[in-house]
Amino acid sequence: MTRVKICGITRLEDARAAVELGAWAIGLIFADSPRQVDQADAERIGRELSRQVEVAGVFVNAPLDEVAALADVAHLTTIQLHGDEGPAYAREVARRTGARVIKAIPAKDPAAVRRLSAFHTDYHLLDAYVPGQRGGTGKTFQWDYARHHTRHVPLILSGGLNPDNVREGIEQTHPFAVDTASGTEASPGKKDPAKLTAFFRAVQQADGVDEEPADPAPASPAPSEAA
């Protein structure tokens, strides 16, 4: 079964909705982005949900000390490296945090995909190549590039996935998981419940599952810090 990672989460209610729909992972972006999560919100999300779902922190060329500190504060179970980090950096992140590691690269061409073989991380992620941008572009890439991935590491397909195209992406690349950010939003950082539900339904259809995901229940208010 294809797993689903919902990225660009900034609100607890969206994180809860993703979990209720069956998400394997949620992504909290700590790099400069319209979807950058507030640290206090990240802490609340991670504290509540890290035992139910993979909570992935997304970083771009961040200092190791910063990654380690935020991993602790936000209860991160996975670290996604979305910059120019090398294999040695990825190994050190795993050692310092104890978290799983996703190495993401823009799939500019087949050679870029083949270079992922140097990263012995827990997962590899292929994203679209857009000069000057690091994910969240709403753009796809040539999915046939995925055949150049060695598959010695589980592959996550990202880049412009939405309810209308994710089924085709799965059928063409057969990934371990799919990742969506802008394709399930009402606006940057705020998820659209209908798009989320439609995305999960399309993934299930690609996997040959007839059962449709239930619409997420209305989010209950978070308990107050004083409770």
Question: Can you offer a commentary on this structure?
Answer:
With 227 residues, this protein is an alpha/beta fold. It has a single domain, classed as Aldolase class I (TIM Barrel), CATH 3.20.20.70. The protein has seven helices and ten strands. The protein has helices spanning 12-21, 39-49, 64-73, 87-97, 110-114, 166-173, 193-206; strands at 3-6, 25-29, 54-59, 78-81, 100-106, 123-127, 155-157, 177-180, 185-187, 190-191. The strands form two sheets. The protein has an eight-stranded parallel barrel, surrounded by five helices. Strand 4, helix 4 and strand 5 (100-106) form a beta-alpha-beta unit. Helix 6 runs parallel beside helix 7 (193-206). The longest helix has 14 residues, at 193-206. It is globular. The termini are far apart.
Number of spatially distinct domains = 1
Task: Provide the low-confidence segments as ranges.
Answer: 222-227
**Would you list the SSEs in sequence order as H and E?**
EHEHEHEHEHEEHEEEH
CATH C-level class: Alpha Beta
The CATH superfamily is known as Aldolase class I
Set down the secondary structure blueprint:
Layout: E1 3-6, H1 12-21, E2 25-29, H2 39-49, E3 54-59, H3 64-73, E4 78-81, H4 87-97, E5 100-106, H5 110-114, E6 123-127, E7 155-157, H6 166-173, E8 177-180, E9 185-187, E10 190-191, H7 193-206
Parallel strand pairs: 1-2, 1-8, 2-3, 3-4, 4-5, 5-6, 6-7, 7-8
Antiparallel strand pairs: 9-10
Helix pairs in contact: 1-2, 1-7, 3-4, 6-7
